[in-house]
Specification:
4-stranded antiparallel β-sheet, 3 helices, 9 strands, alpha+beta, single chain, 5-stranded antiparallel β-sheet
């Protein structure tokens, strides 16, 4: 392994938007050179970011590669941006996802579920996949009140023009 690879991984971490809060500190996964690298910030809030491992076709490898102070600053900014709720209200158990489905009979959006906690995103993704598999009609998903995506009811032939 070479310093150029480590630098590329740390640079990719400054652009990461998918961070997870753990008891060991915020962490993200980035892809580089055929591997999925895990970058983590310390839980106590002091010290450098670190590459703590990588996964690839041949298996997993535990690493402990510290970032420079300059690299850590960019990584901290990415983590804070990704973990901060859209409305600025701190949620210790993570974001809240709300799934809705278009009801063609009432011509209104109906709630199909609210997902929160550690597995909120995973459960929301599962619910979206289930709605898609059953082809129940147009759906939309919100994260902390912000629209993530929405199907257009008109494209499903469920509205009269």
């Amino acid at each position: 392994m070479y310093q150029n690879d480590f630098d590329a991984v740390f640079t990719a971490a400054t652009q990461a938007t998918a961070w997870t809060s753990t008891n060991l500190g915020p962490r993200t996964h980035v892809s580089h050179d055929g591997y999925t690298w895990t970058v983590q910030l310390p839980a106590e809030g002091t010290g450098p970011a670190r590459i703590v491992g990588r996964d690839g076709y041949g298996g997993a490898e535990v690493l402990d590669i510290p970032a420079t102070a300059g690299q850590t600053v960019g990584i901290v900014e990415a983590a804070v941006s990704a973990l901060r709720p859209a409305d600025g209200v701190a949620r210790p158990d993570g974001p809240v996802f709300r799934l809705q489905r278009w009801d063609a009979f009432d011509e209104a959006w109906e709630d199909r579920g609210t997902f929160k906690g550690e597995r909120g995103r995973v459960n929301a993704d599962f619910a979206v996949a289930s709605e898609r598999a059953c082809d129940t009609g147009p759906i939309r998903l919100f994260k902390d009140g912000e629209l993530v995506f929405a199907d257009d009811p008109a494209t499903h032939g469920l509205t009269v023009d």
